[in-house]
Specification:
With about 120 residues, the chain is an alpha/beta fold. The chain contains 3 helices and 4 strands.
């Protein structure tokens, strides 16, 4: 799979560990989309090379009638909004607080089964 066909959607808070890992994800995809909380301090971005990354801060306002136990609504909504921002044929969503060192198996399976969701049981 060509890296130009893949967006890596990194979902979670802006943090130094997240931003350091993005440098490693760049070898797998040309487009990195950070989907972070609007409350995150974006000044941390000045300390890292985020060239080629899109920073997306969706509106996660919760209506009084919305259930948000354990921030579940925030998580689902930010994934959904991030996926709408992706412009490539394939998107791989990863958590900001979890590092995937070898994306080759995912990329390979996504190439083999382009019409299916590819997932595993990682935290």
């Amino acid at each position: 799979m060509d890296p130009k066909d893949l967006t890596i959607l990194v979902q979670g808070k802006l943090h130094k560990h997240t931003l350091m890992r993005i440098q490693k994800y760049k070898k797998w995809a040309d487009t990195i989309l950070l989907c972070c909380d609007v409350q995150d301090d974006i000044s941390i971005l000045d300390q890292y090379d985020v060239a080629g990354c899109q920073i997306y801060r969706p509106d996660l306002t919760v209506a009084d009638t919305t259930m948000n136990n354990f921030r579940g609504w925030f998580q689902c909504k930010s994934i959904y909004e991030g996926l709408k921002e992706a412009k490539t044929p394939y998107t791989l969503k990863v958590r900001a607080d979890y590092w995937v060192g070898n994306l080759e198996p995912f990329v390979q399976k996504m190439s083999e089964y382009p019409e299916k969701y590819v997932t595993n049981n990682m935290y």
